[in-house]
Amino acid sequence: MKKIIALIALIALCLPLCACASTSLEEQSAKTQTKEEVKTKAEKEETKEEAKKDEPFVFDPPKDCFSVGYSRVDITPAVPIHTYDGAIAHKIHDPIQMTCVAMCDGANVFLLYTLDLRGIPTSFAKYSAEKLEKEFGIPSSNVFLNCSHTHTSPDTTEEPDVLKWRQLFLQQLPVAAEEALRDLTPAKAYGGTSHTEGITFVRRYLLADGTYKCNPGSGSNVVAHESEADTEMRVVRFRREGKKDVLMVNYQTHYGSVGSLYPDSVSADFVHWLREDVEKEMDCHFAYVQGAAGNLNFQSVIPGERKYPTFVDAIPALVEDIQNAVAAESELATGTIHGDMSDYEGKSWDYETNTITGSRDIYLRAVGFGDLGFVGAPYEMFDITGQQIRAASPYKMTFISAYTGGRNGYVPHAEGYEHGAYEAQWGCMVAPGSGEEFAAELLRLLGECKAKG
Fold it and tell me: Structure pTM?
């Protein structure tokens, strides 16, 4: 009997332990099941996203708001490849990239590409814009292809290696557009300006004998620069809901220093380091828009003017100038995007005989919305022309996008033609007076955009 009682007591003691063990196993099973469910759900979502990427892209912009999207894709060529003036690069110093900023008012879109390139031929730029219009329905007037003008990028020759690289460019063009359009996010615009010191100079000089020369060597009898450089930097920051800001910087200077430091290399030059440093310091996406820089560079033969030995050394100062512009920013109105384009008939010119030899199509563009105006010109305009356009623009802030939509050489202002030097001679394809004509046409286009509301 005692043994039976002891056995019953032992069973009674074990029952709670068994119950606890059972509960623990059930809880563990539930936890395992929950983890598996979460994992399965995550995998399903990931699969959906992958499938979404494979689906044909149908543009469906955010409605009833202004939105901005950003993308950057690689267009680094295979080496060896022809670069500036027949040179051949055998190394990649840093990547060549294509950045696209998409701006949308809910229906209309403006695509602003910034390309790490010296320039692209007018016919190629026209074909590229029409390709985007056909694929996405965005008018070619609303497509800007701005080049930074680095002299260490693939050139515009008809060499087989360059033609092969162009296929990569054309393949990546819609890829960048689609990624930027997919990234469209409600945004507000803010703008500010600052001035740089000791970095950019007018490279045309008055000499002691009364003549003018571009880039005279050290020791030349230099009296002064032809004019004071436009050192204004314009910055627009798009603050986006839940995503990184998009920062667009419009500045004007010629290429930096990689061409002399690394002559056998492909490089985006100073834009590469500026982009990397700005994005690191300001946690944003960055796009550099090259402005009116036909008569500028980063060198000066006047002692003490130049503050930095190379343009790379000036990058921290440029980043600080950008930060200063952002610190002084104010909100800019956005609104309906309006674009206009003019197939302007420029006068072809022979500087040796000083005669007009025919006509040349110059594709000029303007886009405006709210307080923001943009002009695109397919040539190297002088900084004075850029200043004149900004001063007369109907928009609160105007971006000058030179080197855009083609290459048609230099277009000096009136005094530039009078003073000569190569930008006004063999580097110029259009007749004297063209600078003022084109500026008036760009302002007319801006006015048309503004009048539409």
Answer: 0.87
